[in-house]
Amino acid sequence: MVEDIDDFNGRRVLVTGGSRGLGAGLVDWLISSGAVVMSVGRSQVNAPANSRLISVCLDLVKEGNVRALTDAAIEFKPDSIVHCLGGGFKKSADLISAEDFLYLLKFNFLVALQLNNALLGSMVQKRKGWIVHVGSLATKEVTASLGYTCVKSLILPYVRHLGKKYITDDVYISGVTLGALSGYDGAMDRLHAERRGVFDQFLATRRPTQRCTPIDEVLPYFRLLLSRGAKLHASNMLSITEAEGYAI
User: Fold this and answer.
1) pLDDT tens readout for residues 136-148
2) Nearest by Cα to 30 from 48, 14, 8
3) How many domains does the chain have?
């Protein structure tokens, strides 16, 4: 029987990229559902003081801070991780420099890899764990910048490989491929505020529903991927795109 987790009492969840966008939405939802959450971001989570929220503010660009984050995560002992950290960070040149490419690689993939390497052993030992990686439809459609598209594409083979390896240890590694989301000052909210014409053209040409998907409508999928039902999705990327895009 699939575990009933209408609440997450007793669960310890690490959320990277938790200060805005999907990560911030997940933090609010998980706390309201009873989980203890460690939220990682460059700024404080805009939430009232809560004994179930541990907010870790680190600029991971600075040398040593990824190690500090890993140490804090090990001490937190999460049974669940949602990797929301990522983005294009305005490094959109077609002839992207090696330095900028490595920057994108770090924040879209390597931080998650390092955290997983540090925490998977404990999950296997307890035979209890959930890891969810957040991917992007841009990797299929090749609509984003070159650097972002390339580094984000690494998530699929990574999830496929590790998901198969650890499913028999009752550690369920999966991912979601997302289209455009709105809410919690995410990327599309900022695009709407800063480049309204580009935003409107995107909706007109890419979204048949003429809207971005509200983050609150995406959260039920994470309820599934952080439950025993995640076993059925281990090693796979679940597509949540609201008919955006062209690729099949």
Assistant:
1) 998 888 888 999 9
2) 8
3) 1
